[in-house]
Design brief:
130 residues, alpha+beta, Aminopeptidase, five-stranded mixed beta sheet, 4 helices, 5 strands, globular, N-acetyltransferase activity, NSI-like
């Protein structure tokens, strides 16, 4: 049975594996940046199958008006079992006052829409230069 954790319990080796499975290899080459990402996120939700972390999602929020959900990822062997939905719902349940934006890939658009996400106002991204 999958258990969800919201106290920033993260297996960083598994997080690297999950990010690499998602194609986010550019985010896995600096452990200090990964740890800082977790520390500076207000909400971290992880999914566990016994002692193995199989899912991760995070949110930055002011807990009043806005929150941004990022890095929703589930191990390839555990997909289509409701874990992604569980991760996102744990974040959504953390505050009923917040309007959440979600940053995700278009290949998962149907999944996000099934959870109630819809088109919103324009969103622009400024990418940092390495």
């Amino acid at each position: 049975m999958i258990q969800y954790n919201t106290d920033k319990k993260v297996d960083y080796d598994r997080l690297i594996t999950l990010f690499n499975q998602a194609g986010w290899n550019d985010k896995t080459n600096d452990m200090n940046r990964l740890k800082t990402m977790v520390e500076n996120s207000q909400i971290i939700v992880t999914a566990w199958d016994e002692e193995v972390m199989v899912g991760f999602a995070r949110c930055t929020t002011d807990y009043v008006f806005n929150g941004q959900i990022n890095n929703v990822v589930v191990d390839t062997q555990y997909r289509r079992k409701g874990i992604g939905k569980g991760l996102i719902n744990k974040i959504l349940d953390s505050s009923n006052q917040v309007t959440y934006m979600l940053r995700g890939s278009t290949r998962n658009e149907g999944f996000y829409r099934s959870l109630g996400f819809e088109d919103g106002p324009i969103s622009l991204i400024y990418k940092r230069k390495e």
